[in-house]
Amino acid sequence: MPHLRHLLLPTVAGGLLALAAGLSPAAPPTYNGPLFDTHLHYNDDAQAPHPLPDVLGRMQRSGVQAIVANSRPNDGTRALAAARDETRAAGVTVVPFIRLYRNRADYTGWFADDSIYRMVQDELARGTPAGPYRGIGEFHLYDSANADGPVARRLMQLAQDRDLVVLAHVDDVAIDKLFAHAPKARLIWAHTGIGGVPVERVRELFDRHPGLVGELSYRPGLTQDDGQLAPAWRELLLRYPDRFVIGSDTWINQRWQYYEELMRGYRVWLGGLPGDVARRVAWENGAALFGMN
Ligand SMILES: [Zn+2]
């Protein structure tokens, strides 16, 4: 049947080409399991443009099944924690953290401000409708010397004593300083070096501090043009598959606008990792921090 062969050949060739493209390492399938957003803010200025059904819808459509909620002020976290029916319906578990900031002014002085320490203790005693607070942060240290501030030191010790996870936006020098106050603390390093500290130095810190976990939003150099991990980062994640997590960092409303796109971006490079590693970074490492698995 020469005529049939003639008709089929281009189709077969096209199919083979498509198959080859599908198997190419440049385009692995995207990760399609659950995500744990370990760095989420629901700040006061987000709540009017993005009411609860809006943000929960964005999480649900993104396959985000748990969040670390920390908001300025803590009312935003409380709103998420209080919406038991809505979060359950969206399939989202809320893990509440105590934010150190009542307002923008607190960003730059919290580490030496005793009233912040008292606020943390009051919040801890108060708890949330979703259960007790599980962590402290996100806090910022724009000058790593402030990691030795009296309130920074006491909060690290409190976290270690009460088994609270710390979420810290700091540089590599501050990581060493914070762990010096509380060597057994568990600390999520927001952005894992947002200033672009070299990956070798990041690795050194991971080797030294077993309680260190890296959150990867905004990390410069993490991915390449094709959306996959840069080789050095892939190597580090494979070396420490239990020590990395993902997050949205919805610090401004624009991040809410692009929430689903952000999560799709994570799914692209997660898909390039071995399946078990992808699942750990996407979900299990976050769940393990809070005894959820
Ligand atoms: Zn943040």
Detailed description of the structure:
The protein is α/β, with parallel strands linked by helices and 293 residues long. Helices cover 46% and strands 13% of the residues. It is built from twelve helices and eight strands. It has helices spanning 2-23, 52-62, 75-82, 84-90, 114-126, 150-162, 172-181, 199-208, 231-239, 253-257, 259-270, 275-289; strands at 35-40, 64-69, 93-98, 135-140, 165-169, 186-189, 212-215, 244-245. The chain has an eight-stranded parallel sheet, sandwiched between helices. Helix 2 (52-62) runs parallel beside helix 11. It is globular. The N and C termini lie far apart (60 Å). The relative contact order is 0.14. Mean pLDDT is 92; it is low at 1-20. Bound molecules: zinc ion. The site of zinc ion has 6 residues, from loops.
Short description:
The chain is of the alpha/beta class. It is built from 12 helices and 8 strands. It comes from Caldimonas mangrovi.
